[in-house]
Fold these 2 entries.
Entry 1:
Amino acid sequence: MKILIDRLAFRNALARVEMAIDRKPTNPVHGGVLVEAANDHVVLLTNDVDMAVRYQVDFVQVDQPGWAVLPGRELVDIVKDLESDTITLTLLDGGQVEVRSGDDLCTLVTLESSADTGREGTSHSESFPLVPALDGEPAITMDKGDFLVSVNSTRFATARMQDSRFATEGILMELADSVVTMVGTDGRRLACIRRPTTGGSGKKARAVLLPKVLDQIYRFGQDEEGESISIWFLDNMVGFRMGNLESFGRVLNKEFPNYSNVIPQGGKHVVRAHRESFSKKLRLASHLTQESAAVVRIAFSANNMEVASENEGRGRASANFEVDYVGEGLKTAFNPAYILEGLKAAHSDQIELQIDDAVRPAKFLLGDDYSYVVMPLSALV
Amino acid sequence: MSASRPRHVLHVDLDAFFVAVERVVDPRLCGRPVVVGGPPESRGVVAAASYEARAYGIHSAMPMSQALRLCPDLVRVSGSRGMYTRASKAVFSLLGEYTPIIEKVSVDEAYLDLSGTEHLFGHALDAADHMRREVKERLRLDLTVGVSANRLVSKVASAFAKPCGLFDVRPGQEPRFFAPLPVKVLPGIGPVTATRLRDFHIDYLGVLAETDRWFLEETFGRYGPAMQQRARGEDRTPVCPPWERPEMKSIGHERTFAEDTDDPRLLRGRLQKLLEQACARLREKQLLARTLTVKLRFADFVTVNRDVTLAQPSDHDLEWWKEAEPLLERLCARRALVRLVGVRLSGLQQGFWQGSLFDPEAVAARDRLSVLDKLRGRYGEGSLQSGDRLWLRGQS
């Protein structure tokens, strides 16, 4: 294998596959980047079991086709520090790859290569975990912007710790009636967004994905060519394709909670507020909450909302602002971080709060077909 | 806010509190030697003794068997923590009408800062007298009060005034009041320090106050000069109301069995009871705990601990019981009889409970707990108990 590749193109490609480099591989080969060169392109593949990324770099001068699994971390690190415009990768006899850029030269010991198998020019590695080809009709084709917004609107609500009962550390992706529903929850708040598909087989499908793959797509998806994303539901993973980027996420086998049951349908009290004002007042109050348990009390009355907090021994805060509300009013309490995160992800300047009472879940409408449900805090009495 | 504003600090102490409450409930106990505590056959100790019992040399923490030997006519009452807590709340609620700055030291003892209340209640001495009479008339309990310009002198003054007395030490009179008192009356001077002081012929606070400072520093280290300052009646420690006090770190309960045991039913029952008590205290203080430690002490005094931390803090006995039961099983792996079981809830945080979206039953469970607490508060801790605790019948 011998290739000449643009340094920036190679660096960008490595940035896309970097997240799936296995940091603690049981088999050292799994901690590598598979580099395959054929025709006029190079394909990079990484796979850490939870997710895999395949990225194709076009317009590469391939002098000699072949493949090699290079130590992932080292390859990423040295390419970041090379300076010349192009990089030459040459597979040497004896299982080493020479990485040359201008006057700089590094030699990496391959974890496996086409030179080992004697099947030069043909893929593939025997021990590197490969991923299926994304061919055939995808289950979903949808607007890339819609998909990325859906990820951003649900990701923050997922649980940071694993739950023994439900797969709340993951994000639910569900396809039904040409609508993709994505849901993230940690058991105390829940974000749910619906967006239409633009094509695909349309068959009902459902999978709970670890957020890691969606984070990777969110980070790099915007830069990929094309306005749509195609999604395949495979055996135990979901594959995504945008331009030259293919990402695969492992499907969680645990049950996802029945989210539709906990989204309130309307509420006795409906408050419409300006998102920015609400955020500012909440942020102000959140500076004076207890360190061990952040609580803001929210009270609304005719066209007014009061946000208050108290930190024993430090002080208290109270902020009022105008809202659109008619009714007898209600007092409740929330973790301010939960509401602030929801407001940050909101799509519209006006948000709507629907709530029945101080102990049942409150629903925030944060945009078209975008609901955010938060469980209030109850005072210990 | 001026630095020269006179301070009026009261130390209030309810006389033989547990016994006094029992006498309110059962007046037949009046005038007789009474103690509150566990039965002698289950290694019970005296928790409180009436003044009549004290005349026989009986005092708190004395083994009950010894107390009964000293006074064969002694009346023993098992006592009810719930009743004492209610009585204590009633007393402190009444005292709270005089000042919000109350530092509760125990169920029957507190410091009150009356500085600045002269316009409302007159001189602190008059207010203290009024307080005592009000507690006696409204609650039929005897209150002893020490009045001075600081906590230390008030504490010693109240001990001086017991029982049912009132003692006032005017500002500037502290050294004169302290001078003839033996050194052991000063809080902080225990038997060991008192013996060492006596070795140097320092028997009275007056002598300690006049002793060479350098000598005290050489002999007792940094504590020497501080001790001397206190012997002169100087103390600047403020009265700390609850909101200024450092947060509580943990809540724990432990219990020694009447006889060492390896009966799993007794162990489970005891653990559940301790957990219920600890969780009830959490709820009473409006706290949630994140970590539970279960402790076992075996008959050979080997002590083992295991802990578990929840993702969501809780004050619910049943949630903790799910975690405590497997811990107990793991701890019991040692083939030895168990002498003591203990629980400790730590990682405490204040105030609010976060419900779960997918567990509506949790809200109902909280309501049930609140009802349970009310019933137990009214009819006693044992009025409603979990099945496992029934194995403890006959145990103290």
Note: Chain A has seven helices and 27 strands.
Entry 2:
Amino acid sequence: MVKIRLDDRELEVQRGTLLIDACRAAGIEVPSFCYYPGLSLQAACRMCLVEIEKAPKLQTACTVPATEGMIVRSNTEQVAQARRSMLEFLLGNHPLDCPVCDKGGECELQDMVFRYGASESRYGEAKRHVEEQQWSPVVYFDAPRCILCYRCVRVCDEGMGVGALSVVNRGARTEIAPNHGDHLECEECGMCIDICPVGALTSGAYRYKARPWEIQYTSTICTHCGDGCKTTLSVRNNKILRGNNRDRSGINGEFLCIKGRYAYDFVEHPSRLRQPLVRKGQELVATTWEEAIGMVAAKWGEILSRRNEAANNILAGTSEKRSKGFGVIASNHTTNEENYLLQKFARTVLQTNHVDHHRTADYAALIHALANESPEQPAQAQRPPLARSKDIVGASAILLVGNNPTEQHPLIAWNIREACRRNGARLYIINSRRIPLLRQSHRFLPLGLGHEADALRYLCGEPEAGQALLGKTPSGDPVTSDLLHDFRNRLQEEKDVIVVFGDEITGPDVSLLIRMGSQLSGRTRYIVLGDSSNSRGASDMGLLPHLLPGYRPVEDAVARAFFENRWKTPIPETSGLSVDEMVTATLQGGMDSLYVVGANPLKGRNPADFRGKTFLVVQDLFLQETAQAADVVLPAASAYEKSGTVTNTCGELQRLRKAIGVLGTRTDLQIFESLAAAMGAALHPCRPEEALEEIRQMVPEYNIPLANVLAGGAEAVLNPNGFKPLAAPAETSGRVYSAQDTLFTSGTLGRFSNILNLVPERAIRKEPDPA
Amino acid sequence: MQFSAQLEDKLKKLMRNYPIKRSSLIPMLLFVQDEQGFLRKETIAEIAGRLELTIPQVEETISYYSMLRKKPAGKYHLQVCTNISCLLRGGEELFEHARKKLSLAPGETTPDKLFSLEEVECIGACAWAPAIQVNYQFHHELTPERFDQLIGELQRSRA
Amino acid sequence: MPVSEHEVLVLTERFDLPNSASIDTYLGHDGYQALEKSLKQMTPESILEELKRSNLRGRGGAGFPTGMKWGFVPKESPKPKYIVCNADESEPGTCKDRLLMEKDPHQLIEGILIAGIVVGSHQGYIYVRGEYRYLLEILDRALEEAYARGYLGKNILGTGFDFELATHTGAGAYECGEESALLESLEGKRGIPRIRPPFPAVVGLYGGPTVLNNVETFSAVPAILRNGGEWYAQLGTPRNGGTRLFVLSGHVNRPGVYELPMGFPLRKMIEEVGGGILDGKKVKAVIPGGSSTPVLTADALDTPMDFDSVAKAGSMLGSGAVIMMHEDTCMVKVALRLMQFYAHESCGWCIPCREGTDWLSKTLHRFHSGGGRDEDIGLVEHLAKNMLGRTFCPLGDAAAMPMISFVQKFREEFEMHLSGRPCPFESKQEPATASR
Ligand SMILES: Cc1cc2nc3c(=O)[nH]c(=O)nc-3n(C[C@H](O)[C@H](O)[C@H](O)COP(=O)(O)O)c2cc1C
Ligand code: SF4
Ligand code: FES
């Protein structure tokens, strides 16, 4: 700590703190355009000039670190005059048509002039004129408005690791330029637009649609990938106009990728379902909610009584080939409350454990392995070895096994880059592809497809496993024993590693990974990467055929009893079918009814093959393959149209807030409630807040303080079972695979986002694998 | 893309001078421009490839330096200095004279592609003002008459 | 042979010898003796002592004591250290380094080598402005000779000292003469200056400690080590050792590059060395150290030309380029032309320099072509003052300081341009081309 004097106040600050940060922390305003926390220093805008005693001229507070005894003044006339003069210089060539500028009302230049006042402009010369340019469907650039703060260039290069923007020419002709001459080819994340203090970079999706003061802001969680970025939606007249996160709150700070920033537009896609549909022969025809719900309830009631009868008959000895009853395929976009209630509905009302969802990461295996494999350390029980997304930034080393976070987990990738850039974290990559994060990597172990487990075995100290890795990988990278040695030795020197892994590591390999991690000498933490906004929540809430909420095995009588007591209904005793098994059983006519909520398990298949094979009820946003085969289609509300909580892939609980409503739709929660009611079964509790309360009572991992979550922040859910070993779950056959979404796809939801379909980069990336 | 053997040799030597590849960029651009007249798109891509740079990295660099050009100039690129020492000795008048003589606006090239004209900043010939450079060749203490003479010589040398 | 009886030939001693650039000529006239002495009889510390004693100050513009600068380089460094010679010579009015390289390249090479010995560097670069292509050839030939004779390369003179030296060409950018922009350019990037501290002596080329000096500065080193620091210091005035290459240009009868002792009086320089003002006219103004230094009026003609005295007179010795302007010169035109230069050469990085030079050159252009308004004069001064001391690098100051001096010292000339009147000097100004 050093003592400095700031405008006659004595302050104590960390040695090396930049004066600008010291001032701001002390509540002393120092204006800046180019200084931007987290990005490299520029000292270009000269707005932050302050007086430092003994320095002959004004100094930039953004580059001078505090030293002991420094005397700094920011409130003198000289400083005020310097600020005014910089603004006067800037306004010279700047268009002064603020009333028609898209940034009007939220422009930093406008605010600065208001606060620090350039006297009336004395600029009487011709202004530089350049036509506005469109660089991509989402990025427009108006050069004369640009004040050359270089934020956009830096956020693209340093933050995104893309480097699509550069500075060209020199002097007053200096301009920001896109990487392809007249257009951009990039990740289309829009960070440059968001970070631009003025109206130079504007958003194709938002520009000229609204004035900032007409807008209502709703901060909620992005519904696309598993990282769970907070996005603040600008809403006017029940219409979402843009997404951003300018206040830097939430786990992602200001970061958003193209999906978080623009891909809310699916909500108003013309093919959005707005009325329930029922099958009349070949056709699905629109109907009322009452009729649709009534029809489903009646059919399900009938199936239930037939099954009860059949069960009695079996008991009575008249054996009959049993059908498998109800199957429920759930969503990885719905809220925790909805997920919890859906599995409760399935297990209690529909009397089935055939409950599953598209599993994109093996959370269950990780939770299980952590509880059972890692030596019990009381210290660890306090601080869970599951890392939060932001922990990446502070880790001294990161081991990335599989996955391509740049495409699949943009926030995780952003955090990894920040860790490397700002804290010198060492990134170790094990991958069968040459992923973009190699640019940041410290060591790279290239692999042939599917050899991740061999690499783990090698790292666990099985030299033979290394044999399988030697040679040239399909992508042409040579792997020598020296490379393997070096990778392993370096990694073993690390003391604080966060292991990040994708769907390449599932089942028993997860235990292998944990074993490898516990052999490292320091603290090791883990992040498993799964797709979609609430995959983790779907797993945690027991939307699995073999596990109850909180990963308690269905086949464990004690676990069952715990829930049965609360739910006052028995739960079927044996594990159920996985998604694939349910689909196969359906095709063979073995399911009485299949209830698909916010999922499209028939993606890539012909809907006609499934028609009439079962009583198929689909609840979704769009008429996708599965819905096309349905008997009843229920139009559901999207994440932006409801409240509740979701859990991101790192286990951070966050709150969804309703931004808009879409006429004709109902939230999944409301639909479950109506269905249960129509079947004469009360499904409690049906308000999201009460449902969360029951979750907190029944799933101890979720019994966490909520203040943060309610305030729009995130809280990590607890370590499962506090590291007391969990009962081993019954074997299941469910597949775990990522949909391999790119930045420009989002499962089947992405099909309905105009923006995602518009950007040319989408075509360059591979379409995700339907399997 | 291959450059002339002589240039390739020069570039090879150049790259040996530095611990990092990018250091060769500016000399390389200039040497290649000397041989090819200007920097074509393909040349830029070639140089980017050789130095393991992105095309925007090369473009941003080219756009900064006033001697690097992406459009052809005349066989004889006349650079007339009008900065202070030359100004005081008739540099501006000389430039005006050159414009009229060759009927060229700054930045233009004669139809026969022989001459192009540019007004330049101080070229380091202040004690021998006014001065011009024809490509890299200095011509000191010029008068309009000596300028005309020079143009005549250059025209003849082509023939 | 001195062109003027007042010349004291130290750095230019060999200029008139036949084949002055060849290594044989150099070796025949004290060449590489200082290197041999430095390697065999002296230590880095004693060389540095000698340099400090010589009062050699940087000839690039700022006049920073060279010995002190070299002393800032840390002894131990995990990264290689570098010696960089600034041969970007782009300051309007300056053409002295060009001659030093053309006529006596080995003297420069020897100076660079000695810097290498002092700071423990084994690699040097000479950054030559792109327009000086012919020098690249001369220098490369000299380097080849030095390598061939064992003055460069491995195990120099059998002492185990290694040093590699290469030329590097710029491609047209005044700003690349600024030390940190030069380093960026040498790394293949746009010539945008760096944030300092750290200074190049600590973090310079490729992140390694770097000594960066002007051609003339390095060229002075061999003579200093041959004859002693004391001897060199005595040639000049207190705190301003040695001789300096002055470039006389503009309205003098004998423009040229002259080696004169530091502190040589300005009037004598104009009258006796430069042969007086063209056509017997009166002196109106003198720019004493290149376009970036404030203009002086005729009443400053008694200033001794050393760093401290010129500073006292309100300007700077800068690059030693003395630009003479006689009574028929339009000072508004001069101010305009220089501002156009700075606007053209501003790298554009920071607001005050980019916008200030652009604004000023536009206003001065309008002003000079008869569109001036009363308030413009105050505005020009105000804008220049708002640039002064607030830009990212000294280029902004280099544009602002002379501008302020033009307005302050020649306000009445600005006023003469007002009310739509044509430039009062335009008629008087016939091309003043010398006929010698
Ligand atoms: C805009 C600008 C241009 C400069 N141009 C040159 C130049 O062309 N040659 C030079 O030697 N120094 C130039 N300098 C000064 C250098 O930054 C540096 O101070 C000098 O090369 C150091 O060498 P010295 O100590 O030997 O003078 C320039 C400085 C500025 C701010
Ligand atoms: S476009 Fe915006 S962010 Fe980029 S340099 Fe210009 S003002 Fe700054
Ligand atoms: S914030 Fe310091 S110069 Fe821009």
Note: Chain B touches chain A at residues 54-57, 59-60, 63-64 (CB under 8 Å).
